[in-house]
Prior knowledge:
The termini are far apart. The strands form two sheets. The chain has a seven-stranded mixed sheet with strand order 5-4-1-6-7-9-8, with helices on both faces. α6 (176-191) packs antiparallel against α8. It has nine helices and nine strands. α5 (149-161) links the parallel β6 (137-141) and β7 (166-170). It is an alpha/beta fold. The radius of gyration is 18 Å and the shape is globular. It has a domain at 34-174 and 227-269: Rossmann fold (3-Layer(aba) Sandwich), CATH 3.40.50.150. It has helices spanning 17-34, 41-50, 72-75, 104-110, 149-161, 176-191, 201-209, 212-227, 231-238, and strands at 59-64, 81-82, 88-89, 91-95, 116-120, 137-141, 166-170, 246-253, 262-269.
Amino acid sequence: MRRIQYIEIHDQSWFPSTIRDEITDALQFGFNVIKAYSPIVPLLQGALDFARTSAPDQKTIVDLCSGGGGPWFDLAKKIQGRAPNGAPQPLQIWLTDKFPNVSGTENVSKSDASLNHIAFYPSAVDAASVPRELKGFRTMFTSFHHFPPEQALSILQNAVDTEEGIGIFEITRRAPAAIARVFAWTAFLCLATPWVRPFRWTRLLWTYVIPIIPLVLMHDGVVSCLRSYRPTEMLDIVKQLSANAYDWKAGEFAVKFWQPPITYLIGYPTHRNR
């Protein structure tokens, strides 16, 4: 099955921002419920430990294409900031997006990540041109597949040019089983709609009366699978990077049989800026 660059509807600039936010809120809710990315905590923790210290008294994660927050309200309770000597260190997590989810700030205020601080960056952030003030280890969850190879290369090159580590994690795959899971995932999110926060009456309207949200979730979920990169394809992009003084590793993280495999790409400078 070859990678196909179809469009995802909720990514388009013409798609209503209010419905987009309700879709990303639903996706964030689902990630928190099933804890889809919990298995990669050791991988992410190891990469963060190798990342350079962005400030002497804390470490920073810059999450790109965050939507409504993705898995971070769960992961923030499990990831630790560590100083070079191994001592605990505060961890600042910035959630960023090209289309910032304003309503997601309500989820941040109610999250229980007491050891770490999560905040939405208020301005639009292009993953291929991250503002200079946003320094720290970069992450992308279920979003790298949105970008065709030339844009994916730009995202990685921008991280390399600024000497920031980056971790990319995807639960979507180009496989029949992954596509089948999209339909179960959509059904689950539709049934759980009344419990998605922040609560919106309009979300009930666009889910049950005029089912725009389920249709977009289903379409975009299938397209996400068809657009997903395999580890070897990610490494082929890495080979095109200039000034590539980085350590890179890619693979599929094996998890329990009822959980989808997680494709990952992790890179950080070969020198440790400690």
